[in-house]
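Table 4 source record.
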Amino acid sequence: MKKGILLGLPLVMIAPLMLLVLGMGSANIEAVRAACATTANAGAGGSFGIGTLNWRGASHYTRNPHPGERPYRERVPNMVTKIGASATSIIGFQEFEPPQAQAFLNATNGAWAIVKGKNGGGQPSTANAIAYQPSVWKLDEVRYVSIRYGGPVIQIPLARFTSSGGLGSVWVLNTHNPAGAVGGTNAMRDAAVRAEAQALQRLQADEPSTPLFLTGDMNDKTRFKRLFLSLASGWSAANQNDNQIDWIMGSPGVTFSGTVVDRSTNDGAHEYTDHPFVHTTVQLAGPTPGAPGGSAPGLGVMPTGITATPGGPVNGQVLVANANIKLRSGATPGIRALAAPSPDFITLNEVEDVPLSQMRAAAPGYDAYREKQPADSDDAGQAMGSAIMWRSDTWSLLDGGRVKIVDDDHTVFKGQNKLWDRFATWGIFRRSDGAVVSVIATHHMTNAYRFPRQWGNPPMSRVEQYGLGMDYLIDLVGVLAPYGPVLLGGDMNSHPSDGPNAAAPRMAAAGYRYTKDSGVIYNFYAAPVKVARTWEISKAAVHSDHPALFTRMDMNGAGPGGNGPAGTVPGGSSPAGCPPCPTFGNLGTVLLQNVSAPGNIDAAKVAAAAAYQAGFRGEDLVTAVAIARVESTWDPRATNGSHFGLWQISAQHKGKVPGWNTQADIFDPLLNAKYAFALYYARPGSGEAKFADWIPFEKTDYRQFLDVARQAVAATAGGATNVADTGCTASPIQVAGELSAALSARVDAMMKTSTGLCSLSWTRGAPCTYKNQCPKVVDAVYGGPGVGRGYGNGEDVAQGIINAGLAQAHGTGLDPLPPVGAVVSYNRGDGVGHVAIYVGGGKIFGNDYGCAANGVYGCVGFADVHTPSGSVTWALPKHAFDLGGMPAAAA
């Protein structure tokens, strides 16, 4: 699908930083560069075409033409034909002078767009440009690298693009290193290569999972290649030999195939230009499981970088149809029957062989969506099975994707061994009145309770796999909820009475009600949404072996942040003056207390609270805490070979519960407790029999620790207290008497959270680090639900707040000091800068400064207001700004 960049002020504002880019205006999108906050974004795997082309500047025809050279007007159409046949979607252009650029854009009629560099005077220039197809790529950011081009210093473009087809993001740097004709020398070209390599290496360090490319006319053959590859470790060339000066280079993890050096275009500018057109196919490596990315194929990988903003309250009625249509021959009449009552949305299952075009043709006035086929051939069919349709006269698709919820279900189906995966297709839709609703279409595993038989030796039972799939669906609901109410529907292949891992009880525990047909087709929704009417139509009507379900719902003002009314804070109510109280969802991270000595009562409380939140109850809760004392002396970071954490979870169990993606993850007390509970839950019987994964192997009798375990459980009120205890209390960190309780509480919570923005309970889609994330840190302190995704450069944030009209006061410099709560931007002249919050007493709060340690997750802390260098602009946000729906006391 095409993901549009947001270029106008949103109606609902979650944070002033969300408006930073928007306040700059659409005409200046090229000024939107990376923050000191750039999130690594892995490519999702797949391929695309990239090229490089020197056009032979139009001015040569009048100044120093080749014999027989023709003017650019005659050459551009020929070159457009070559480009059209090349299957490229990104091309680096050199000597692309303004008349040629305009002729190219006119000839391609919107199919291509260009990113300009800058000339020696610092003005935008097409001479060195990156051309891209906007239907394939969305331009995210533009930076510049300075090189000397003979006499003047020019700025060549470095652009970040995100694929609309699920390939993830890429960076492209395009250059024209100086030829002898303009005064270029070997030394000057070497200096340019070093500048280019240095910029790319810095970027690679910041975003190690994002593919990077260098295209251009290097005016050197072997000399360029040897020098560049000596500076850019692990890079490779698309060119198959060293006979050209036009090059395409790729970062580690990128492979090239089918490189074409089209020498027919090197005809002395008779018909084309005086350079070959070099183009190639790029194969991107897919992300590792758990890595961030859009519609990544990894199990349970949640969407990030969602291109949508929260909507207003959803009023009126919404009608949803849910159906499983097995045969392509029945799809057209089946979809017609589903569309007959004019539902707002239709979710479809088992339509992997039904093209989107057939769906649209079957129901005029409806559009249809599912992600493109993944590169993994094992997933190709099953991943395409679920689709969403919607009334295109009422709703528009903002963003969408796919999440794998089950990997390698070793089921025995009708006597045959099957290996199946399962997926969920999601979409975020905006109604014409600005309301936003998310829809999830999914088809879960065949009934795991009724058909538990497996083949081979899989690590989990089918019931456990089904429950894990429900975990991922609930996680996906949580990712989408900050944008508006979420409706989940499809063939769930379970019944409410099957067992605790079935869809109905799991969704009920997450706060969702349901309607269902006479079989296993469900529609899930949450309060304040209410059902006005529900009905089904027969299997025959939809040409399926399932009936179809219709649900008409009164939306009752459901809004973002869960399905509560607009403005409701996720996680329930909070005392006045507090930010949303931290809650721990399915993948929530427990924030460790400062346990100085393992084995003490404070450490036992951490284990007790984690065990309760994971699901242990009653005397078994006490037993679980006592067993943790034997296993780890209540040390969350205890390690014994391949066994880790409070309950010494074995590495062989990895994958039973979502969230264990890195070695460090399993040291989280809550995740460790969830693994312990999964093992406990899978054991038959009661009492000690449920702890058969521990008791038979322990040399120390756990019962000697039952008394202290019982005290720990009682001290945590049965474990109901969050392990982090970051609740809505006054911050013990004395930053300034004037700092509001709301800001102080969030600052305190961030100081206690060592694993980055994604571990904060009130953020969504934020990176799991503080390092180089200054706008996102400020965004997380000030914003409402779903924050922690601030955009722009640190140096521009305060000015962006001013431009957006969100400043009640603003100024420059640090004499006098800004008011407490002001957002302070530092312009260091490096195009990036820094931003922090002034907290009084001559101190700022932010990331990367004033920290005792700066490890893999970076840090937040306090520093002298003068510590970051550069000129200062500050802005104090208005009191009226919505701090997560709480009383406006933000400044």
